[in-house]
Design goal:
The structure is a single chain. This protein is of the alpha/beta class. It has 2 domains: 3-126 and 305-335, Quinone Oxidoreductase, Chain A, domain 1, CATH 3.90.180.10; 128-280, NAD(P)-binding Rossmann-like Domain (Rossmann fold), CATH 3.40.50. Strands 3, 4, 5, 6, 7, 14 and 15 form a 7-stranded mixed beta sheet that branches. Strands 10-9-8-11-12-13 form a 6-stranded parallel beta sheet, with helices on both faces. A two-stranded antiparallel ribbon has the order 1-2. 27% of the residues lie in helices and 25% in strands. It is globular and about 65 Å long. This is NADPH-dependent curcumin reductase.
């Protein structure tokens, strides 16, 4: 039988994940049964939500069990199919987890259309991260012509899309990123109107200067000291889609403080709309429109994106750990070493 390599959760992290929390295994692949497909993984998507799956705290999804394969979405090639919807050679998207090969039920495998863009976009700008930005902005943020939209992690797969959607709506896009290289990319390549470096000692005043008319939409995916700087600038009736809080995923920092009183006061006094969401809740009503609207814009180059690709499954844990502290630059992907 063929051998697959995979990464499993060896132990639950206490604070930031370490390499000791991951374990590599080799397993024999069984033959695909009726209704199953055999897949060769081409690309693995690494995303911040995976940190939550490593914890057993109550959340919107079940945690990865200790000893279980790390969860993740992949771009794959069908090797063998026992289902009429798939044929050998098909390129598909599937939730195989962190592995090189898998035999899975066909109901977690999906065809995709990148409109001529590279297949990697199926798990990036045209996949879950892109749809997170699209659905959060369309349903909750609802930017209008002339408004100011701010997003953190603006060089990443979600933030970069948020700003570009804001521009398409006629709004002013202000990005927050870490370091000159990322800030330059956000301004010069993505076309944001302004960008602020959250590492600056003058971050809060820099953000205020970049938003002279306040903030109408803040797309929250970071939390922490970024939220502290954003909150005083939110205008009356501002909208805040919340899709992530990466600053808190590894637990509170030593300098953390209770942000609830100031946040609740602002919600009341300025009639703020703060709405957490998981992109899957909007798939039924909005995913078709997302593919139809955004796919051609990506393929034509009107919507731009950046990918950060590392080679080999063995590099996945270290790359994932680095992503949680902002070491990646763009959508983080693992390219499997044995791709032809």
């Amino acid at each position: 039988m063929p051998i697959a390599r995979r990464v499993v959760l060896a132990s639950r992290p206490q604070g930031a994940p370490t390499l000791e929390n991951f374990r590599f295994e080799e397993v024999e692949l069984s033959d695909a049964q009726q209704g199953e497909v055999t897949l060769r993984v081409l690309y693995l998507s690494l995303d911040p939500y995976m940190r939550g799956r490593m914890s057993d705290a109550k959340s919107y999804a079940a945690p990865t069990p200790v000893g279980g394969v790390m969860e993740g979405e992949t771009v794959c090639e069908v090797i063998r199919s026992r289902h009429p919807d798939f044929a050998p050679g098909d390129k598909v998207r599937a939730r195989t987890g962190w592995c090189t090969d898998a035999v899975v039920k066909a109901d977690i495998v999906h065809h995709f259309d990148t409109h001529g863009a590279p297949i990697t976009t199926a798990v990036g700008v045209l996949g879950m991260p892109g749809f997170t930005a699209y659905s959060g902005m369309k349903v909750i943020g609802q930017p209008k012509d002339g408004e100011t939209v701010v997003v953190a992690a603006a060089s990443g797969p979600v933030g970069s899309m948020v700003g570009q959607i804001a521009k398409l709506a006629g709004a002013r896009a202000v990005g927050i990123a870490g370091g000159k290289k990322k800030c330059d990319f956000v301004r010069e390549e993505l076309g944001f109107d302004a960008v602020v470096d959250h590492r600056s000692k003058d971050f809060a005043s820099d953000l205020e200067a970049a938003c002279p008319k306040g903030i109408d939409v803040y797309f929250e995916n970071v939390g922490g000291h970024v939220w502290d700087a954003v909150l005083p600038l939110l205008n009356q009736f501002a909208r805040v889609p919340v899709c992530g809080l990466v600053a808190q995923y590894n637990g509170p920092g030593a300098a953390d403080h209770d942000r609830l009183p100031a946040t609740m006061s602002a919600i009341l006094r300025r009639s703020l709309r703060i709405r957490g969401f998981i992109q899957s809740e909007f798939v039924k009503d909005h995913y078709g429109a997302f593919e139809k609207e955004i796919g051609p814009l990506v393929a034509s180059g009107r919507i731009r994106y950046k990918e950060d690709v590392v080679d080999g499954l063995e590099r996945a844990p270290d790359a994932f750990i680095g992503m949680l502290t902002g070491k990646n630059f763009g959508k983080l992907l693992v390219r499997m070493a044995d791709i032809d």
